[in-house]
Amino acid sequence: MQKVFTMKAERIAHDGAAEGLYEGGAVRVHGMLPGEEAIIEATKKHGIYIGVIKEIISGSPSRKNPEETHYLSCSPWQIADYALQIALKHEILVSLWGYYDNAPKPTFVPADKFYGYRTKVEFSFTDRDGDRELPLSLAFHERGGGSRRLALEKGCALVSDGMNRVALALCEKLRAEEYTTKELKTLVVRESKSTGKLLAILYAKAEKLPKFPVDDIPGLTGFLVFHSTEKSPASVPTKELWRTGEDFLHESILGTEITYSWDSFFQNNIPVFETAMKVMQDAIPPNANILELYSGVGTIGLLLAKVAKHVHGVEIVQGAVDSAGRNAERAKLANYVAECIPAEKMDARLLDKRDVLVLDPPRSGLHPKVIGMIIEKRPPTIVYLSCNPETQARDYSSLKEYYTVERITGFDFYPETPHLEALAILKLRA
């Protein structure tokens, strides 16, 4: 049952939602800033009211007009001026690490570019605007709207004009071929910021999707089409239907060329990542022997190999390991190797005689078995980069008996959103 009431935003949670109270119960709303008062329409779920703004009664002086009407779906902090965004993200880090007496106060590195920075975007499709029918359109899922989707007339401001142009052109071709949302699932577009080249990957619910020409779309260097089972909402390939052009991109990071395939993880904000990379390089002692877990296509490890004695990468995806090997050969870095194995299943002896352990895990953080191996082998230095500071701080709680925190730095990899990247440098206790 929905309720309408007035709420004051008391604070911002770690996921970027404003929090307040109604009848003694917690209320969470995206799109509000601290101190604002608004009329809220909310539904109680698991003891917490989840609401949407109906009207702002008293706005923050830091509130600004969003760039897009769909901002809640992609970047809910478009309503906050950048100084407030940085202050809030810094506060998140301070609150997470404030529990540890030995931790220094975190610092924070802002971004220079607020829009067009993403290297990857995933669109869904819609043919409706409320009760009104639309031609097939790109879409994002509406935050708090269940399965509802918002049509995107121009794409999204977080990605480049080129990425939006390719996505819109492909949607137009799909519309001309008379495909509907019954046959289509999602469209992923990826861009090399160094070269401007683009890949697109279409995931279809249909098990057959005949070829259509795409070579007239400027900048599109490769297009892959997959059937993706409706049993999962995720964009995962069930069967390849067809492809044309290349299936990889090149990116230059601090002067090193990195090649990655259409399905590999890659960082989303290259300039800010390069800044973080310099901090990691500075944290590595001379002539270090490094083990890197969750090593991907070798981006971090290869850049560290330039200042280290040896780097050994561990990665679960064979394709990424293959790309890392080719990237090492191209860079003429004979002191880098990688192997394909889940980090939690590796032999703990890989940590023997390592000076540095580098970690860049998924949002879920470190597997308990990995933490157990760290405690057993206790490498002298840990360089831990995380896209989820909450799980990073949680992981440290298991290591605090053995490690002190030398440095914590936040990086604004994701302007206009509540997300941030955090780098923790840990040193073994004497």
Describe the structure.
This protein folds into three domains: 2-63, Beta Barrel (OB fold (Dihydrolipoamide Acetyltransferase, E2P)), CATH 2.40.50.140; 85-113 and 268-428, Vaccinia Virus protein VP39 (Rossmann fold), CATH 3.40.50; 120-251, Beta Barrel (OB fold (Dihydrolipoamide Acetyltransferase, E2P)). The protein has eight helices and 23 strands. It has an eight-stranded mixed sheet with strand order 7-22-23-21-20-17-18-19, with helices on both faces. It has a seven-stranded mixed sheet with strand order 10-9-8-11-12-13-14. A six-stranded mixed sheet has the order 1-5-6-4-3-2, with no helix packed on it. The model has no long low-confidence stretch (mean pLDDT 95). The chain is an alpha/beta fold. A hairpin with a 7-residue loop joins strand 9 (132-141) and strand 10. Belongs to the class I-like SAM-binding methyltransferase superfamily. RNA M5U methyltransferase family. This is 23S rRNA (Uracil-5-)-methyltransferase RumA. Keywords: Methyltransferase, S-adenosyl-L-methionine, Transferase. S-adenosyl-L-methionine binds at residues 267, 294, 315, 360. InterPro entries: MeTrfase_TrmA_AS, NA-bd_OB-fold, SAM-dependent_MTases_sf, U5_MeTrfase_fam.
Topology:
Layout: E1 2-8, E2 11-12, E3 18-22, E4 25-29, E5 37-45, E6 48-58, H1 71-74, H2 82-97, E7 107-109, E8 120-129, E9 132-141, E10 149-151, H3 161-176, E11 184-191, E12 198-204, E13 220-227, E14 239-245, E15 248-253, E16 256-261, H4 270-283, E17 289-293, H5 299-305, E18 310-315, H6 318-330, E19 336-340, E20 356-359, H7 368-377, E21 381-386, H8 389-399, E22 403-411, E23 421-428
Parallel strand pairs: 4-6, 7-22, 12-13, 17-18, 17-20, 18-19, 20-21
Antiparallel strand pairs: 1-5, 2-3, 3-4, 5-6, 8-9, 8-11, 9-10, 11-12, 13-14, 15-16, 21-23, 22-23
